[in-house]
Design goal:
Blueprint: H1 27-42, E1 75-79, H2 80-86, H3 91-95, E2 101-103, E3 113-115, E4 123-127, E5 130-131, E6 153-158, E7 172-177, E8 190-199, E9 204-215, E10 219-230, E11 250-262, E12 266-280, E13 292-294, E14 297-299, E15 342-357, E16 363-381, E17 384-405, E18 408-425, E19 433-448, E20 451-466, E21 474-490, E22 493-504, H4 508-512, E23 514-517, E24 522-525, E25 533-544, E26 549-572, E27 575-597, E28 602-615, E29 632-641, E30 644-653, E31 669-682, E32 685-694, E33 718-726
Parallel strand pairs: 4-7, 24-27
Antiparallel strand pairs: 1-6, 2-3, 4-5, 6-7, 8-9, 8-33, 9-10, 10-11, 11-12, 12-15, 13-14, 15-16, 16-17, 17-18, 18-19, 19-20, 20-21, 21-22, 22-25, 23-24, 25-26, 26-27, 27-28, 28-29, 29-30, 30-31, 31-32, 32-33
Subcellular location: Cell outer membrane
Membrane topology: Multi-pass membrane protein
Pfam families: Plug, TonB_dep_Rec_b-barrel
């Protein structure tokens, strides 16, 4: 990994490595844009030096190069040393400590970010603005194919600030920036880095390298790779299931090669990336293989009792029934297993990225992104492939930033994608589908004295063709818009607010699922009558960004009409019969972070989040939605002196008692985390040494957001030791 850069630093040449997230699509559009750019590339050697350079970028996914403090809704940016010290084995674990962000947690191999209680297709995971296109949004047992060790910057946009990346991203967007396509020529002709890391508790070892080198005046080559391997991880003390989670081992290899043409007015480049990984699927059981639905009830051998009172984990309304004791709650394995299945995953991806200044009269910048992905994973048991998932996709995006019009600065854009998804084998619970999507969008911003106003509009449409004799093809369209403002009423103080109306179109899995999914212990039934979701979202943020005391407090309220969710109809010994249904729902919550300086070298931070998600009263019955994260609060003390850094953190996660039907209460827990780092020069090379201790008291903890929380508790005590050298 290349050496970290301070946020907003202007890079050499004319571009930043964090260039904004503009993308293009299919071959015809890409060819047209390249044809437009070609004459300019030929003239780079004699380009006018008076042409302005690109503005520094802080939040690439904002669309208009806004800084973190300039957004009307909250944004988190992890980069540089902070990212190095926070990185986990996967993207979900890396971001789980951010206010408003939790993780799906499916053992060690798969963990996807959850934002404000929303997951799956409501949270888009992007690689420099283009969706990653693995299968992680289909099911929580499918891994996110972004490798944290190779990330340069990770951005989390919550709520309506993510509108230009999709009306369906109601929860938010996670944008992972990397260096695989160089955007500038290294100052000394080359640069790079090497990192090694080891972690106890799972005998985990990981390493990564990257190298960027100039090949002449304009060509720049980038190479990077990583390897990660871990055994079954240890959990907290006193778990009745043992000391380790069987089947939680994981290993992965990632490699990328990219080549760019970089000039004084822009760049264009291609990169080829590949990842191979293997990870276990904890909690798998064969006892459900003969189960099937009879109407809205499960039939599993002798189970045909339609009463719900005997079901394990029958729902407990808030304030009713006894919660499981926080200590000694029996989360042991309930069924005999016959060998843990595992996933063999491989993905290949080709990226095209380009950016060009003053491309056309009236426009200041053109940005292009495109990607073609071939993804496959096999679920293997007993040496034989049980189910194969394939995802063949192509996506692109083009944006044109126009010159100010009556003081309004903005951009127009187009995005399109095509996705061929199939599942073949024993657990092929979704018929093969072809999904085609297109979208047009516009984003505008203007300053009125101390108030900055922004607005966005996006219209998208999709068609899904299904290979089934019993299910029908579907098409949907929707329009989303948002309007926001930020008032800087005092130096260092701001008040921001956003209102948005978002349309989310149903996914192929929600429409057409029909089969047993043993990894999540569910029998899933889709519904091809589903309509689009419509949500009205309000965000209010009060922030202070200067002085010894800084803070940000955000309140949000989202009302979703026709909210699509997995409604549990029946259950048998842990297997749930779920059907995708629609009800009106409401999400309300708070996110807060306050930091107080304690002199020149120390500070204390208090942070927390809360989300309440429920089905509206007129829907009747139990109003709680499933797998909603519990509230959290934490305190972090940190200090630095002459290259040394140290921190201590205590995070309390409350018990989750607001549970859905057939869902059990999850006990609360408190984690203690410590860390120490030292930055120095070794043979004139910038070197960072670090050690981190997580869950130092070895607390037994369970994630309420996980489908397999009882079979795979969170990690117990672990110590991470690493070193990173940059040149």
């Amino acid at each position: 990994m290349s050496s970290p850069l301070s946020r907003g630093a202007v890079r050499a040449a004319s571009l930043q490595a964090s260039a904004s997230p503009l993308r293009v699509h299919h071959g015809a559009v890409a060819a047209a844009v390249l044809a437009l750019l070609q004459p300019a590339w030929a003239q780079q050697a004699v380009a006018d030096p008076a042409i302005p350079t690109l503005a520094p970028v802080t939040v690439s996914a904002s669309g208009l190069n806004l800084g973190e403090d300039d957004m009307s809704t909250p944004v988190s940016v992890l980069e540089g040393q902070e990212l190095v010290l926070r990185r986990g084995a996967n993207l979900g674990d890396t971001l789980a400590g951010e206010p408003g962000v939790s993780a799906s947690h499916f053992g060690a191999g798969a963990s996807r970010p959850i934002i404000r209680g929303m997951d799956g297709p409501r949270v888009k995971v992007l690689a420099d603005g283009v969706e990653i296109h693995d299968a992680s949004n289909v099911s929580p047992d499918h891994a996110v194919t972004a490798e944290p060790l190779l990330a340069r910057q990770v951005e989390v946009l919550r709520g309506p600030s993510a509108l230009i990346h999709g009306g369906g991203a109601v929860g938010g967007v996670v944008n992972v920036l990397d260096n695989r396509i160089p955007t500038r020529r290294p100052e000394r002709g080359f640069e790079g880095g090497v990192e090694l890391q080891g972690r106890s508790g799972a005998r985990e070892a990981a390493g990564a390298f990257d190298l960027t080198t100039a090949l002449g005046d304009n060509l720049v080559l980038h190479l990077e790779g990583s390897r990660r391997e871990a055994k079954d991880y240890r959990v907290g003390k006193n778990w009745s299931g043992g000391r380790k989670v069987e089947g939680s081992d994981a290993a992965s290899d990632t490699f990328s090669a990219g080549l760019s043409w970089v000039g004084t007015r822009g760049y264009i480049g291609l990169a080829y990336s590949t990842q191979s990984s293997r990870y276990g699927l904890p909690g798998h059981s064969h006892e459900f293989e003969g189960c099937h639905p009879h109407g809205d009830h499960l039939h599993c051998g002798g189970h045909d009792d339609h009463g719900h009172g005997e079901e394990e984990g029958a729902h407990e309304e808030e304030g009713h029934g006894e919660a499981h004791a926080e200590e000694g709650h029996d989360h042991g394995h309930e069924h005999e297993t016959h060998g843990t299945p595992w996933v063999k995953l491989r993905t290949e991806r080709v990226d095209l990225r380009g950016e060009y200044l003053d491309p056309l009269p009236g426009f200041t910048r053109a940005r292009v992104r495109a990607a073609v992905t071939r993804y496959r994973h096999d679920e293997i048991e007993g040496g034989e492939i049980g189910t194969t998932f394939r995802n063949k996709s192509q996506e692109g995006r083009v944006e044109l930033e126009h010159q100010p019009i009556a003081g309004w600065r903005g951009l127009i854009g187009w995005q399109g994608s095509q996705r061929r998804f199939s599942a073949l084998g024993e657990e092929a619970y979704v018929a093969p589908t072809d999904t085609t999507r297109h979208a047009l969008f516009v984003l505008e911003q203007k300053q009125f004295g101390d108030v900055r106003v922004d607005a966005a509009l996006r219209h998208e449409w999709q068609r899904i063709d299904v290979d089934s004799l019993t299910q029908r093809d579907t098409s949907h369209r929707g329009t989303s818009f948002s309007a926001g403002a930020q008032w800087r009423f005092q130096p260092g103080w701001s008040l921001g607010g956003t209102f948005s109306h978002s349309s989310r179109l149903p996914t192929a899995e929600e429409l057409y699922a029909d089969g047993l999914h043993l990894a999540t212990r569910t029998y899933e039934m889709g519904n091809d009558q589903l309509r689009k979701e419509s949500s009205r979202n309000i965000d209010l943020t009060l922030a202070r960004t200067a002085g010894d005391t800084t803070f940000s407090v955000t309140a949000f309220h989202n009302r979703v009409k026709n909210y699509i969710y997995a409604d549990t109809l029946d259950a048998h010994e842990g297997l749930q019969l779920i059907q995708y249904a629609q009800r009106d729902a409401t999400f309300t919550g708070l996110e807060a972070k306050l930091r107080q300086k304690l002199g020149r070298h120390a500070g204390v931070t208090v942070f927390g989040d809360y989300v309440r998600a429920k089905i509206d009263a007129e829907s009747g019955g139990n109003r709680n939605l499933p797998r909603i994260p519990a509230q959290r609060v934490g305190v972090r003390l940190d200090g630095d002196y002459q290259g040394f850094g140290a921190w201590a953190e205590v995070v309390r996660t409350a018990s989750q008692r607001r549970v859905a039907d057939y869902e059990s209460v999850t006990p609360g827990y408190t984690l203690l985390n410590l860390g120490l780092s030292y930055r120095t020069q070794v043979q004139r090379l910038d070197t960072l040494f670090y050690v981190r201790a997580d869950n130092l008291t070895d607390k037994l903890a369970f994630a309420h957001t996980s489908f397999i929380k009882d079979a795979a508790p969170l990690r117990g005590r672990s110590v991470t030791v690493g070193a990173r050298v940059s040149f």
